[in-house]
Amino acid sequence: MSQSVNLNQPESLDGKTALHAATTQENNELVRFLIQNNCKINAEDREGKTALFEAIKSRNKAVVRDLVAAGGVIKAPQNEITSLLLKCVFFPFLRKLFKNSEIFQWGQKWGP
């Protein structure tokens, strides 16, 4: 008997999907698997954070590149975006990433 699995189903009450969990756990192979199997790249958890935000926060370059290539955008509460932008001063690969403004989106309820 074959059963389908919803890759976008939140795993817990915090609204994190399998992609959020794989990103946070720095499981690069699982992130690639999920992307290849059409998971929702820009799914937001209950706080409005996307997996790309989590990957940048953990400074995982490989996952950041994979998510950006798959169309990932950065969404998170404004105070956390500000913290992330400050990190750009210290991490050159983040400065390059932010030059591509298409990946940076303010969350609707957290807009500027």
Structural class: mainly alpha
Name the overall outline.
globular
CATH class: Mainly Alpha
Report the end-to-end length measured between terminal Cα atoms: 50 Å
Determine the CATH superfamily: Ankyrin repeat-containing domain
Q: What level of helicity do the residues show?
A: 40-55%
What is the level-2 CATH architecture name?
Answer: Alpha Horseshoe
Strand fraction: under 5%
In the CATH scheme, what's the topology name? Serine Threonine Protein Phosphatase 5, Tetratricopeptide repeat
| Mean pLDDT across residues | 77
How many strand elements? 0
Radius of gyration: 14 Å
> Which runs of at least 5 residues are low in confidence (pLDDT < 50)?
106-112
The protein's oligomeric status is: single chain
Largest sheet: none
The arrangement of helices and strands along the chain is HHHHHH
Helix tally? 6
Number of domains: 1
Write up what this structure looks like:
The structure is a single chain. The protein contains 6 helices and no strands. By secondary structure, the chain is mostly helical. It has one domain: Ankyrin repeat-containing domain (Serine Threonine Protein Phosphatase 5, Tetratricopeptide repeat), CATH 1.25.40.20. Helix 2 packs parallel to helix 4. The C terminus is likely disordered.
Show the helix and strand layout.
Elements (H helix, E strand, L loop, with lengths): L17 H7 L3 H9 L14 H7 L3 H9 L8 H11 L3 H7 L14
Any descriptors?
mainly alpha, 112 residues, disordered C terminus, single chain, globular, 45% helix, Serine Threonine Protein Phosphatase 5, Tetratricopeptide repeat
